[in-house]
Design a protein that fits this description.
The protein is α/β, with parallel strands linked by helices. It has a domain at 7-35 and 96-200: P-loop containing nucleotide triphosphate hydrolases (Rossmann fold), CATH 3.40.50.300. The chain contains eight helices and nine strands. The strands form two sheets. Strands 2-7-1-8-9 form a five-stranded parallel β-sheet, sandwiched between helices. The protein has a four-stranded mixed β-sheet with strand order 4-3-6-5. It starts with 6 loop residues before the first strand and ends in a 14-residue tail after the last helix. The mean pLDDT is 94. Bound molecules: guanosine-5'-monophosphate (5GP). The site of guanosine-5'-monophosphate has 14 residues, from strand 5, strand 6 and helix 4. Guanosine-5'-monophosphate binds next to strand 5, strand 6 and helix 4.
């Protein structure tokens, strides 16, 4: 069967466990590749340029915006992040499935652009649990936690525009659920039908 690639978008308020689900999904689902974003934020210890992100200056980022190089971009917590059109194009040409870990503003832009994709929103089990998770990280000040809680309220409201909503009340179950979505979306009739051997005579009429 001919290879064809699909775009999967994961979004969530911070503290919902999106990063753990993202990492584990990439490890478990062969053929699924991470889209490496561009960012203006400083590199953290252990991160590598070109692997975790393409780290660029604000000037470079602004130039890329002006050139229309991004499929979507947004400012998140004071830094800019964007998905290059070329990254998505290359994945499509290679017939690869690509997984994006982007904020809700970026997901909304991709959705509005009419790009075909599967949009998955990860929710915490409740606001009290979200606060507990954000406090439990011991990395953020009380002020930062309050800001993230306020942001989470408006981010969660956008969940209604996604194709799937997965509540992360149990990490293992949430990972398995997102993986099931990926597997099922790959075999939707309208996506598969044009890639089957001609001898089946199943081609869509379009
Ligand atoms: P971090 O700085 O912790 O790696 O990421 C902060 C936030 O930026 C996360 O919510 C992540 O999903 C988001 N993000 C990462 N890459 C992109 C991107 O290319 N576009 C958008 N819109 N958000 C991104």
């Amino acid at each position: 069967m001919q290879k064809y690639g699909l775009l999967f978008v994961l979004s969530a308020p911070s503290g919902a466990g999106k990063t753990s689900i993202f990492r584990e999904l990439l490890a478990r689902q062969p053929g699924l590749r991470e889209s490496i974003s561009f960012t203006t934020r400083a590199m953290r210890a252990g991160e590598r340029d070109g692997i975790d992100y393409h780290f660029v200056s604000r000037d470079q980022f602004d130039r890329m915006v002006a050139q229309g190089a991004f499929a979507e971009w947004a400012e998140v917590h004071g830094n800019c992040y964007g998905t290059a059109k070329s990254t998505l194009l290359q994945a499509a040409e290679e017939g690869r499935d690509v997984l994006l870990d982007i904020d809700v503003q970026g997901a909304a832009q991709l959705r509005a652009s009419g790009l075909e994709g599967v949009f998955i929103f990860i929710l915490p089990p409740g606001m009290a649990e979200l606060r507990q998770r954000l406090s439990g990280r011991n990395t953020d000040s009380a002020e930062v936690i309050e800001r993230r809680m306020t942001n989470a309220v408006s981010e969660i409201r956008t969940a209604a525009c996604f194709d799937y909503i997965v509540v992360n009340d149990d990490l293992e179950r949430a990972i398995a659920t997102v993986q099931a979505i990926v597997i099922a979306e790959k075999v939707r009739r309208n996506r598969v039908i044009d890639h089957l051997p001609a001898e089946f005579g199943l081609k869509s009429s379009s």
